[in-house]
Amino acid sequence: MLATTKIVRLFARFIYTKSFGYAGSFTDKCKQDDGLRHVAFRLYSKAEADALAKELEAMLFLAGYTNKIKRTSSECNWQLRVGGGEYVRVKALLG
Fold first, then answer.
1. How far apart are the C-alpha atoms of 39 and 78, rounded to whole Å?
2. Which of 1, 2, 40, 63 has the smallest set of CB atoms within 10 Å of its CB?
3. Phi and psi dihedrals of 17, rounded to 5?
4. pLDDT single digits (tens) 22-64
5. Partners of 43 in beta bridges
6. What H or E segment, with its residue span, contains residue 91?
7. Quick check: helix, strand or coil at residue 87?
8. d(CA 69, CA 56)
């Protein structure tokens, strides 16, 4: 069973207040299925993003959810004005 976007954000907010500073979040459509969304969290530190992904995966597993979590990153390039960042993406049901 997949968690909804609201549940994923709730878990992430709990983790943020416990151990990390604020990170931006947004939701993208999933190409494979119209009923699914990717909830993405942007962090500036690779270590914080890895820790968030690990803890979020553990919380979802303990709650009985089978959401897939993916870690991505983009390079920072000041000449092209690309800010870069570390991302944690969770596939979730719309809701």
1. 27
2. 1
3. -70, -25
4. 568 889 888 888 889 999 988 878 888 898 999 999 999 999 9
5. 86
6. strand 85-93
7. strand
8. 8
